[in-house]
Amino acid sequence: MNIRTRNKVSAEFSMSGLTDIIFLLIIFFMLTSTLVAPNALDLRLPKSDSQVIPKGKSVSVSVNKKGVHFVDNEKVAPEAIGEILREKLKGENLTEATVILNLDKEVTVDNMVNILNIGSELGVLMVLGTERLN
Question: Is residue 114 a part of any domain in this protein?
């Protein structure tokens, strides 16, 4: 009596089910990664053809690419900007006074934010100087 089993274990491995799952995972990660907002912003320097005409007294604050600060073309220490602006705007209506902020392209945002905070504390209008459009 020769009884043979008809169920033989196949030594082959089918990859078709696994490749479908891999492709679905790839599509899922590609779609979800485009929805994630990056931490950096693509910022460009503003250019403008508009002009703000100050109502009251205007004071210019400039920072060059080396980080040297100037108030009305006089070199000052960064810590002294608040006191110098108070002194220059003494006796003026601060709601009508304007501080024009001129920054070099290579100046860090920290410098700009520090000066904007000083202007906010004083309650003056802060205007960012831009290049003219041609």
Answer: yes
Give the pair of three-digit tokens for residue 132: 């003219």
Does residue 4 fall inside a structural domain?
no
User: pLDDT digit of tens for each residue in the chain (134 aa)?
Assistant: 667 767 777 777 778 888 999 999 999 988 887 766 554 434 344 566 666 666 778 888 888 888 888 888 888 998 999 899 888 888 877 777 888 888 887 888 888 888 889 888 888 888 887 776 66
Kindly report the pTM of this predicted structure: 0.58
Number of domains in the chain: 1
Given the DSSP bridges, would you call strands 47-48 and 69-71 parallel, antiparallel or unpaired? Answer: unpaired
Contact yes or no for 104/65 (Cβ under 8 A): yes
**Cα–Cα dist 65/127, whole Å:** 19
- The domain that holds 109 is classified in CATH as 3.30.420
Pairing relation of β-strands 74-76 and 47-48? unpaired
How far, CA to CA in Å, does 77 sit from each of 71, 112, 123? 10, 15, 21
Residue 98 is part of which domain span?
52-132
